[in-house]
Structures are given as structure tokens and as C-alpha cells.
Amino acid sequence: MIELDGATVLRGQVKVLHALSLRIAQGQHTALLGPNGCGKSTFIKLITRELYPLALGDGRVPVKVLGQARWQVDRLRSQLGIVTGDLSSNLADMPGLTVEQAVLTGFFASYALPGFREISAEMRARATQTLAMTGASALHGRAYAELSAGETRRVLIARALVNQPQALLLDEPSTGLDLVARQQLVDTMQSLARQGITLVLVTHHVEEIIPEIERVVLLRDGRVLADGSRHELLRDGPLSEAFGGQIQLVEREGRLTASVG
């Protein structure tokens, strides 16, 4: 699904990814975990084509998505849904946009509904269905710009789901959420994973890594520090090395909590 083969990225004169190689297969729930500045955001921007890797001298292609070396993100939306915080800000800037309309824009990969396109009954039914899938049915007629951070996350996931993608790429989905909203997000991710939607979670919050995510990739300084099972890597030692400080991890009934000290 996602292939990085020696991907190197420069931002200005700073190398933010160092010949990163990584493969994520369809059906393999995966968490990319690491501190701020480890390369997580750069990984996302490679997939969304906001950043490009350096060309490789031997002719290899450093990044492929769904087997393609060249892709348009909007044309992949029926296979890979992408949920980022930047998207939320852009939708909130659209005057008068309702939650239903925000979800419907997912069909057109736009921030507003195109005036020349008909919104079919099937599209509206699908928007209603995906809002229900994410526990956001009650928000249907609300103004998008008035939603809380937790509510916008659920609406953005519903927006990505309208195209019935095989996988979701979630970028720091719990940023800014309170405890209750974070738990609602975790419940939503578990429900989607159980429905067979592949989750690729990019985060620095261990608490977001649901039990269904079996593979963990630890990133540090633009490199893969470790790549293995949650049993191997979601432990005090590997996490302390990745985050550069003493991490203590507690797991209760599959739910993780990390603390420093």
C-alpha cells in the first residue's frame, strides 16, 4: 500500500528524512510513533505530495503509493482516506459550511461543494451512514466551524469514509482532544479496524494505539529506530530510547498509558 525505498527529504539545508525505507501492506494496522521532529509530518507530506524526496541515482523510485510512483491524492481517495489537521482548518474557513456538506465534500476532494455537480440521494445517504459510523450523527445539521476539536475529528473521518476506502491514514488524530473526546476517537478507530478498514496511525501519543494495531514503527531523527510488534516495542526500554527520556508504560485491558519518570 505504502512503500518508501531510501526516501530522503531536505527542508532548506536540513535533512529531515534519512534514506527511510518502509513498507506498509493492505490489511496491516500500523502505528508510526515518535517524538516531535522525528519525521512523522514529513512522512505524511510525502503521501499527500506536499513534499518530494530526493531522486535516487540508481533509478529506484523512493516513494510509491498503491504501487504507483506518480499519483494524485484525490484519485486515490476510494482506496486510501487521509485525515490531517490541516484539512480541518481549511474546512472551518468555508463560510456557512454544515457538517453534512463537509462530509459530502469528500466525494469531490474539495473544501466546498462544487456548484455544477449534483448531490445525489445516494451521496447524502452515504454521508449519513458514515457520520453514524463515527458516532457523529447528532452533528449532521451543525455548522462545521462551530464544532469542538473532538467533533471535527469524527466528522473528518466520516468525510474520508464516504468513498469507502480500504485504508485510513490518520495524522495525530487526538491532538487538542480532552480525555472524553480522545476515548471516543479510540472507540471509533477500534470500530473501523473491526470492519476491515486498514489503519495507519501517525502519532506521538501511545494512548491512541488500539489493541488492533499489531505493528509499531518507532521513528527518531528521520530514521526508523525499530520496526516490530506492539509486544516488542510498546515497552519502557524501546519507548525511552525513541523519546530520549525515561518512559514508563502501563497497560490495562489493552489500553496504554505512558508517563515520564
Automatic annotation (TrEMBL):
SMART domains: AAA (SM00382). GO terms for molecular function: ATP binding; ATP hydrolysis activity; ATPase-coupled transmembrane transporter activity. InterPro entries: AAA+_ATPase, ABC_transporter-like_ATP-bd, ECF_ABC_transporter_ATP-bd, P-loop_NTPase. GO terms for cellular component: ATP-binding cassette (ABC) transporter complex. Residues 2-246 form the ABC transporter domain. It holds the Pfam family ABC_tran. The keyword ATP-binding applies. Keywords: ATP-binding, Nucleotide-binding, Transport. This is ATP-binding cassette domain-containing protein.
